[in-house]
Amino acid sequence: MVSTRSSRRSGVGVGVEEDENRIIVVVTGANSGYGLGICQALLSNLSLPPGHPVPASTPQPTALPPSLQHLLSPSSSSSPPLDRGKATKSISETKPPTLTLILACRSETKALEARQTLLEGHEKELSKREKKGMQSREGWLEGLRIVWEGLNLDDPGMGGKGNGVLGFCERLKDGYPHITTLYLNAGIAAFCGLSYLRFIKQIVTEGMPRAMSQPGTWQFEEKGVRSADGERGMVWGTNVFAPYVMIRELVPLLRRSPHTLPFAPRVIYTSSLTARASKLNEHPLDDFQLLDYPHTYSASKYMADLVMVQLDQEYGQPSGEALSDERPVRIFTVDPGCVTTNLGRANFGSIALLVKLKFFLYWLAFYICRLLGSPWHPVYADQGALPMIYAALIPDKYLLEPSQVPSQKFAVHATRWGKTKVDYGEVDKWEEGEELGRGIVERCEVLRKEWRRRSGLE
Ligand SMILES: NC(=O)c1ccc[n+]([C@@H]2O[C@H](COP(=O)([O-])OP(=O)(O)OC[C@H]3O[C@@H](n4cnc5c(N)ncnc54)[C@H](OP(=O)(O)O)[C@@H]3O)[C@@H](O)[C@H]2O)c1
After folding, report:
1. What is the pLDDT of residues 291-344, one digit of tens each?
2. What CATH superfamily classification does 5-190+225-339+378-454 receive?
3. Whose CA is nearest to atom 16 of ligand 1?
4. Taking a C-beta distance cutoff of 8 angstroms, is the pair 316, 407 a contact?
5. Which residues does ligand 1 sit against, CB inside 6 Å?
6. N or C end: fewer C-beta atoms under 10 angstroms in the chain?
7. Contacts 24+ apart (CB under 8 A), 69-77
8. Where are the stretches annotated Disordered (predicted)?
9. Each residue of 49-100: pLDDT tens digit?
10. pTM for the predicted model, two decimal places
11. Closest ligand 1 atom, CA of 154?
């Protein structure tokens, strides 16, 4: 069915053609690290031939909350175990969906390079499949769209224009009929060096896997860094506030994701293993932009986790209205483990050759951690991205309702020989953190309204 946006209830934008059979995925920070890994894994999973199961949507026992374990347990007597194969979503035999992948990046050059990398890698994968005798998917490449949309999370996008946050969201509302998955993956840390002495001490006292995934005090961060316009804490603004604004602004598009698609609309936030309540000061709301913190990164990731819990409760519940076409949108947070990416590059100094060497040694150390049995070191970004893909594609029946537990945190589980799994987890101390989460959301909302007012959007 083809209708235009102008026929829609909300009247957001005009003239955008509905595309009932197109999965539309937005990935922030898609040009490197986990973002690129998410895109690679999506292409790999969604390009399979008609009738083929989508591997990343296969329910995993380790990823199920305890109260849903019976769904996959072979020993359960109360309810028959489901066949995992049948529980997996498959590419439709009759109308396989197409894909639009929106690379939401601040640099056009980097995004176009990433697009090229993705297409080349994907074409290689397709020809490998063909050589193995797998049927190819007719029309897949012709229907595939990988596009760049400029997004700078450190810029409000006043006026609802340009590549700032509001400008990006307005452009999406005007240019796309819906969003199926919103990956809020881009993030920053104000890392500025490390103490080798403290690093070695932590390795000796706590072991290498822990020292290399949950740094004690060996990693230095710059304190009080402000956004380019000087109005916010930069790490808070990028990791907490911008994702908050994007969810609020883009939920209407997520709600419009067609029922005909095999996957429900979801938001997936890239959090961290280090996102813990203990990272916040005693009175977090007094400095909610984290300007006086010696370590802002983990604190920002925990704050964002609490925000996601609040928003999942707000948007994830089915609407009470019988005829409502407002679909629930589940919002999850993911711990992708530790992978050597550009995020830690500032730790390595500025001499190009030394940076390369340190980068390699860091990667090697992560590999050794995995060999030592660390579940936190998937080593490769596409492996770290697996829980993010899983969180987006797993059928609803394997999830708890937000009214039960609104804080599911999918976590990567690396295994020694590289067979990455997904673990069930919950946001640290989410029940105690409810009030704080509400407080942060209130403050974010005041600021979002202010942005919108200054932009003439309300
Ligand atoms: N690496 C790890 O071990 C690890 C562990 C846990 C969680 N994470 C999280 O994973 C996510 C992805 O990071 P990564 O490790 O994959 O590192 P990365 O390769 O540095 O990716 C970060 C991405 O965020 C983008 N970004 C940064 N600031 C931005 C801004 N103001 N506006 C728009 N985009 C911006 C970067 O764009 P540019 O290329 O233009 O800078 C880049 O694409 C982050 O949220 C990070 O906190 C990483």
Report:
1. 999 999 999 999 999 999 999 999 998 876 655 667 999 999 999 999 999 887
2. NAD(P)-binding Rossmann-like Domain (3.40.50.720)
3. 33
4. no
5. 29, 31-35, 105-107, 110, 151-154, 185-188, 238, 270, 272, 336, 338-339, 341-343
6. N
7. 71/397, 71/398
8. 52-91
9. 999 999 999 999 999 999 999 898 766 544 454 555 567 888 888 889 999 9
10. 0.94
11. 31
